[in-house]
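Private note to self, pasted from the team thread so I don't lose it. C-alpha cells:
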C-alpha cells in the first residue's frame, strides 16, 4: 500500500531522497515522469517529474497534476523534495502542491545539515556561505539568486511564505496560511521540528530535501522493513560527470592525480547530433573502450580543460543557446553511454548530475531505479535490470563532498 508519495524535480534528487527510506528496508520505487498511483505496490513511491529546467508555469502544472492524483487515490502523505541548494522552481512547485492539495499550509524544511547545508534566521547556507554567494550562485544553467528562502519562494508565487525558528518538541505549530519555512542548523534541529509537526498526528503535506526525509521512517512509524545488505560491486569504476560545479571539478582533479584515467569530451563530441554513429565517433568509442580495458578507474567528463569557453564558442557558432547546450550535451553523453554499455570492460558506474543520469538511463531504457543504500550522505547506490541482468549504479548530485571523494569510493569498492 502506498503510504508516502515523494515528488522530486530531477533524477539524482529523487534517488538521494528515496534512499533515505530504502536504506531502512522500506519498499521504495523511484520512477521518472507521471505515475499511475492506483497501481503502485510499494510503500513509498518517488516520482521525478523532470521539472528542474522547465518554466515555472509548466513545473507547477506537473506538480499539481500529480498532487491531484495522489488526493484522488487516497495517498496519506505527500513530500515535495526540493534541491538542497535551492535550485529549480522551488516557489512554483511548493505553491502548486499546496493549492492542489487543498491544505491550509505546507511545512518546509530546506536544510540538509548532514552535508553542510543549513538554514538560519531564514537564510540558506552552503558550508557557512549564503547560497547565492556559493558556487551555486554562479552556476551557468541554474544560478541561485537569493539566500533568504522566503524571497526565493516569492519570486515565483503569490502564496505567502513565512520564516520560523526551529520548533521545540511540544511547541505549537504555527497556523499561518501558506508555506512555513523552518530553520535547522543541525540534524537535531530537523528532528525537533519534525517531532513538533507530528505531535498531533501525521501531516498530510511536507517539503524539504533528503535531510528531513531521513527522519521520516521513524516520524511516520514505518514498521514494514526488510534487511538491507551491501551487494558485491565490480571493483572497476567509471565516473561519467556532467556537472560544472567547482567542487565536483576539484574531485575529478584529485582523482586524476591519484591514477584515474581522464577523458574530456570535445565540443564536437558533445554537440554534434549523431556524432557517436559517425566513423569518427566509432573510432572514439573504440579508444574509450581501450581506456576502460587499460585502467580500472576512469573518468569521462563534459568539461573543457581550463574552463568551458571552447564549448561555448562552438555552440555560439552553430546558434545553440544555453539550454540547447545543456540538452545537447546530456543527450550526447547518453548516446555515448548506450554505445558503451555492452562493453566487457564496463564495471561499476558513478554518474554525477541529474541530466547525465537521466540520459544515460534513457539510453538503456531504464525508467525506474531501486535505491539500495547510501555509501555516504548524498551518494546513492541503486540498481536496475537491463536485458535480464542486474546492474548497479552510484549516483551523486554535483557540488558536495570532500575533494578525495572519488578516490575513497574507488578504494572502498575495491576492498569490499
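Design output:
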Amino acid at each position: 500500500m502506498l503510504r508516502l508519495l515523494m515528488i522530486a524535480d530531477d533524477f539524482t534528487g529523487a534517488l538521494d531522497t528515496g534512499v533515505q527510506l530504502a536504506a531502512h528496508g522500506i519498499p521504495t520505487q523511484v520512477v521518472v515522469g507521471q505515475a499511475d498511483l492506483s497501481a503502485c505496490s510499494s510503500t513509498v513511491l518517488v516520482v521525478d517529474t523532470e521539472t528542474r529546467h522547465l518554466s515555472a508555469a509548466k513545473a507547477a502544472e506537473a506538480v499539481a497534476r500529480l498532487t491531484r492524483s495522489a488526493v484522488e487515490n487516497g495517498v496519506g502523505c505527500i513530500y515535495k523534495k526540493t534541491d538542497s541548494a535551492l535550485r529549480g522552481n522551488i516557489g512554483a512547485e511548493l505553491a502548486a502542491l499546496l493549492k492542489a492539495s487543498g491544505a491550509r499550509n505546507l511545512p518546509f524544511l530546506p536544510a540538509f545539515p548532514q552535508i553542510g547545508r543549513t538554514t538560519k534566521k531564514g537564510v540558506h547556507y552552503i558550508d557557512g556561505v549564503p547560497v547565492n554567494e556559493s558556487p551555486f550562485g554562479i552556476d551557468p544553467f541554474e544560478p541561485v539568486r537569493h539566500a533568504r528562502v522566503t524571497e526565493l519562494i516569492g519570486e515565483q508565487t503569490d502564496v505567502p511564505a513565512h520564516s520560523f525558528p526551529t520548533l521545540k518538541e511540544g511547541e505549537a505549530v504555527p497556523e499561518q496560511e501558506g508555506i512555513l519555512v523552518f530553520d535547522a542548523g543541525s540534524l537535531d534541529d530537523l528532528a525537533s521540528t519534525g517531532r513538533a509537526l507530528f505531535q498531533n498526528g501525521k501531516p498530510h503535506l511536507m517539503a524539504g530535501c533528503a535531510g528531513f526525509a531521513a527522519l521520516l521512517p521513524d516520524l511516520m512509524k514505518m514498521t514494514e522493513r526488510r534487511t538491507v545488505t551491501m551487494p558485491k560491486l565490480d571493483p572497476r569504476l567509471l565516473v561519467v560527470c556532467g556537472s560544472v560545479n567547482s567542487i565536483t571539478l576539484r574531485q575529478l582533479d584529485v582523482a586524476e592525480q591519484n591514477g584515474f584515467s581522464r577523458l574530456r569530451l570535445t565540443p564536437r563530441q558533445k554537440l554534434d547530433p549523431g556524432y557517436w554513429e559517425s566513423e569518427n565517433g566509432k573510432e572514439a568509442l573504440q579508444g574509450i573502450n581501450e581506456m576502460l580495458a587499460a585502467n580500472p578507474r576512469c573518468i569521462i567528463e563534459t568539461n573543457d580543460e581550463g574552463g568551458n569557453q571552447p564549448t561555448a564558442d562552438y555552440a555560439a557558432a552553430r546558434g545553440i543557446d544555453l539550454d540547447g547546450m545543456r540538452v545537447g550535451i546530456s543527450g550526447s553523453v547518453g548516446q555515448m553511454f548506450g554505445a558503451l554499455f555492452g562493453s566487457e570492460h564496463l564495471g561499476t558506474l558513478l554518474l554525477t548530475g541529474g541530466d547525465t543520469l537521466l540520459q544515460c538511463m534513457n539510453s538503456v531504457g531504464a525508467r525506474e531505479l531501486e535505491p539500495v543504500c547510501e555509501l555516504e550522505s548524498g551518494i546513492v547506490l541503486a540498481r536496475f535490470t537491463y536485458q535480464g541482468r542486474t546492474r548497479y549504479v552510484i549516483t551523486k548530485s554535483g557540488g558536495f563532498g570532500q575533494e578525495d571523494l572519488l578516490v575513497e569510493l574507488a578504494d572502498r569498492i575495491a576492498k569490499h
